[in-house]
Amino acid sequence: MKLQVAIDVLTTEAALDIAGKVAEYVDIIELGTPLVKSEGLSAITAMKTAHPEKIVFADLKTMDAGELEADIAFKAGADLVSVLGGADDSTIAGAVKAAKAHNKGIVVDLIGVEDKVSRAKEARAIGAKFIEFHAGLDEQAKPGYKLDVLLSAGEEARVPFSVAGGVNLSTIGAVQRAGADVAVVGGSIYGADDPALAAKELRAAII
């Protein structure tokens, strides 16, 4: 199972600082949506330049103009780009077309999608590299939120998938047992007092 760090800061400088500390322990470096909106495509280029050996994931959360938005992100240096599962099939297909042209990949993010299992299968059939079973920060803040819902859906869908939504040292084992291909960790790494140590511990917890 790969380890992905989701960096949800607002400046390229801060993102590069965090990435520099944790890169040796992670496989995928994700530039969070707030960062891309704040800094633009230059943040993608800066991260790929700094860490050419890593998979750089631009979390665009594209909802329309799939081919165009994916294309500009790939040209900026992204290896993976996200499209929302709630988007039209044609939007996902357009993004996949751009990915194929660049020999890169599209991740379909199921945040906000009710029937995650069915949509995961549909998105995979359209050509997504893998599917992200994702609960956003707002959803995680609701009373009674449990990561188990995402893990169960991922297991049932039987597609290559990642899990994002409260993954930390105490839950990463469950994520792996559910069969996830990628564990996405955000605040537990970038918000830690020692991000490098946090990433190292998470890496060690992956069997």
Could you please describe the fold and organization of this structure?
Helix 4 (66-76) links the parallel strand 3 (55-62) and strand 4. The protein starts with a strand and ends with a helix. It has helices at 12-22, 33-39, 41-50, 66-76, 89-102, 116-126, 137-140, 148-157, 172-177, 187-190, 195-205; strands spanning 2-7, 28-31, 55-62, 80-84, 105-109, 130-134, 161-164, 182-185. With 207 residues, the protein is of the alpha/beta class. The model has no long low-confidence stretch (mean pLDDT 98). The chain has an 8-stranded parallel beta barrel, surrounded by 8 helices.
List the helices and strands and how they pair.
Layout: E1 2-7, H1 12-22, E2 28-31, H2 33-39, H3 41-50, E3 55-62, H4 66-76, E4 80-84, H5 89-102, E5 105-109, H6 116-126, E6 130-134, H7 137-140, H8 148-157, E7 161-164, H9 172-177, E8 182-185, H10 187-190, H11 195-205
Parallel strand pairs: 1-2, 1-8, 2-3, 3-4, 4-5, 5-6, 6-7, 7-8
Helix pairs in contact: 1-3, 4-5, 6-8
